[in-house]
Amino acid sequence: MLPLSSCLHSCICFYAVLLLVALLILYPRFVKMRRYRNQAAEADIPPGSCGLPLIGETIQFMAAMNNGRGFYDFVRARRLRYGNCFKTNILGLPQVFVSSTESARKILNNESGKFTKRYIKSIAELVGDQSLLCASHGHHKLIRGCLSYLFSTSSVSVFIKQFDELVVKSLGSWQDGDKIVVLHQATEITFKAMCRMLMSLENEPELQMLQEDITHVCEAMLAFPIRLPWTRFYKGLKARKRIMSSLDLIMTERRRCSHGNQKDFMQCLLVEDEKAGSDETYRMTDTEIKDNILTMIIAGQDTTASAITWMVKYLGENQDVLDTLRAEQLHRAEKMSPGQFLTLEDLAEMPYASKVVKESLRMASVVPWFPRLALQDCEIEGFKIKKGWNVNVDATSIHLDPNQYNEPNKFNPSRFNVSPTIFQIRFHFFSFVFPSCCK
């Protein structure tokens, strides 16, 4: 008869072996079942790759910016691989890109209240969290109301004259040079125009210092957010501090001297600020004023300069369009006095020029996509989008969609001869038809 301890030991060994055999049999089935469940769960979300842990596909995104084709090449390659709705991960944040007109309408109109604006955190650090780009939906409406003066008829009329004056002056200086870099010249013109309109800044040394800092901020917006002294992001943050200090000095001087003769955007906001408490109208804080002046300089300078550059390129490649445009401009010039600058009314008499601008923006898509944040779980293109995911409307793809435009890669301003309401219904063209959605 075996001792009790020996029997117990044998029993334990038996059950251990039995358990091991069971695990060997059941484990592959468990793994297969779990894989099936994961695949079933992921089948409902957009296709794509989330890349490496923590950083996602950030390295590929940054590499695309330096490959000569630009960062949109990152989006284009994945759209061709996965379709009109795909997911990726940039800087550790889930990103979904959508390129169908119907989904774009739903997202940008936001009738269901499921989306809000969303920009990368590093951009908010550079332009300021009180900027229109980064403000919450409710705060955005308040700030936009304060900025409405900038887009009033009187303000736009003054700006058109100032801009035309700067262009004419620059064209005169080009006669002495043998090579013109259009992007550089356009950037300088638009920068000076924005500074003059926003805060009447025309002092050349001050403009030069400010433009250098603005350039650092713009470069940092497309850089990896690493705070080391030699990085573009760090230099951009330092440049932002200098810009804020400069704006502080200008605002302090305006208040101290009561420069009522300055009829610019900053003065308008400061005058409104002095009325604080007299009614229930929202007044912008100094931080909001500074953040949004910086934002408007960057937006007005970069996007406008890029649009001008692309337009020059397209006109150079399409002689027939250039001839038609020149004829319209010469006809208008015959009706103007020598030394007279353009007015808002003059622009209304240039229908073909307007079509050239629209077609240039359609083909170039200066703003390639519009970012939004999903406020709740929702569905797009039959795929599930989780709360907190970033959803980007791919404007470039929509503007070049052959299902929406005949010969989309052909520069043809005459395609805008049709009634604008057709574009409004189809939700094709973001830059002109839906400005309130795209801000």
Automatic annotation (TrEMBL):
The chain crosses the membrane at residues 6-27. One of its GO terms (biological process) is brassinosteroid homeostasis. It holds the Pfam family p450. Keywords: Iron, Membrane, Metal-binding, Transmembrane, Transmembrane helix. Belongs to the cytochrome P450 family. The keyword Iron applies. It comes from Salix purpurea. It comes from the Eukaryota. This is CYTOCHROME P450 26. GO terms for molecular function: heme binding; iron ion binding; monooxygenase activity; oxidoreductase activity, acting on paired donors, with incorporation or reduction of molecular oxygen. The keyword Lipid biosynthesis does not apply.
